TrEMBL record:
Membrane keyword on record: yes
Annotated keywords: Membrane, Transmembrane, Transmembrane helix
Annotated transmembrane regions: 29-48, 60-83
Organism: Sulfurospirillum barnesii (strain ATCC 700032 / DSM 10660 / SES-3)
Protein name (record): SHOCT domain-containing protein
Length: 233
C-alpha cells in the first residue's frame, strides 16, 4: 500500500478532493488503531495474569475474550478493510488523474498514433482487482511505464472477468460476493514526436498502413488480422 500522505505532497497533488479523501482515509486508519488497542489490552492483561498466576482461574476469561474477538472484533476489522479499500480506490484514481495522466500521453486507439512518431520501450500487462476502481489495472501499467521513463502508453487491450463466491439456501438467503478482475495491456512509448504539419497523414483505411505497423512491431499479428477483417468486410 502506498503512503499517500507522503506521496501526494511530493508529487504536488493537493486538490480539495484529494485532501478530502486523504482525511477520510486517515479516519479509517485511526478507527483501525482504536479497535486494535481496545481488543489488544484485555488480551495482554489476561496473558500477563496467566504467566504470573497460571491458567486455572482464567479459563472463563479466555472463553469470553475469544467470543468477543470472533463476534465483535472480526466484524469491526472487516468493516475497516472495506472502508480502506474503497478510499484506496479513490486515492489511486486521484493519483492517475492528477499525476500519471499529466506525465504520460495515453493513446486508446491506434489511429491516435498516426500523427506521431515514437519508439516502443516495452509491452506491459497488469492484472488487478477492479472492485473498488475499474481502472486499477491501467493505473498499475501506467505506473510501471512511467518508472521505465516512458513518455506515453498505447492501450493495447482490456479484459474483465467476474468471480462470484458464497452460497444461498433454497429460500435465497445467504451471502454472495462478486469480485471483478481485470487485465490491461499497454505499450510503453518514448521519443513521441508530432509529425510535421505538412506531412501527409497515413490512410488508416489502407491495409498497407496496418501492415507497415505490423512490420515495425507497433501492433501484434492478432491486432493486424482483426483490422484486416474489419477493412475487408
Amino acid at each position: 500500500m502506498k503512503n499517500y500522505f507522503k506521496l501526494f505532497p511530493q508529487l504536488g497533488i493537493n486538490s480539495d478532493y484529494s485532501k478530502k479523501i486523504l482525511r477520510r482515509f486517515k479516519y479509517a486508519l485511526i478507527y483501525r488503531n482504536v479497535i486494535n488497542i481496545i481488543f489488544l489490552i484485555p488480551w495482554v492483561i489476561l496473558l500477563f495474569e496467566v504467566m504470573t498466576k497460571g491458567i486455572k482461574d482464567d479459563g472463563g476469561a479466555f472463553f469470553i475474550l475469544g467470543l468477543a474477538t470472533m463476534f465483535v472484533y472480526l466484524p469491526l476489522i472487516t468493516l475497516y478493510f472495506l472502508i480502506r479499500n474503497r478510499y484506496e480506490g479513490h486515492l489511486e484514481q486521484i493519483y492517475f488523474d492528477e499525476f500519471l495522466s499529466k506525465k504520460l500521453k495515453i493513446f486508446y486507439h491506434i489511429e491516435e498514433l498516426s500523427d506521431f512518431t515514437y519508439e516502443i520501450i516495452k509491452d506491459i500487462t497488469k492484472s488487478a482487482n477492479l472492485t473498488n476502481n475499474n481502472m486499477q489495472a491501467l493505473i498499475f501499467a501506467c505506473q510501471e511505464a512511467y518508472a521505465l521513463g516512458a513518455e506515453g502508453v498505447f492501450v493495447v487491450g482490456n479484459q474483465q472477468s467476474a468471480i462470484t463466491s458464497g452460497k444461498t439456501d433454497k429460500r435465497g438467503k445467504g451471502s454472495v460476493q462478486t469480485t471483478v478482475l481485470g487485465t490491461t495491456s499497454v505499450r510503453a512509448l518514448k521519443n513521441i514526436k508530432e509529425k510535421p504539419k505538412n506531412s501527409i497523414s497515413p490512410d488508416t483505411k489502407d491495409l498497407e498502413y496496418w501492415f507497415g505497423l505490423l512490420e515495425k512491431g507497433a501492433i501484434t499479428q492478432e491486432e493486424y488480422e482483426k483490422k484486416k477483417m474489419e477493412l475487408l468486410n
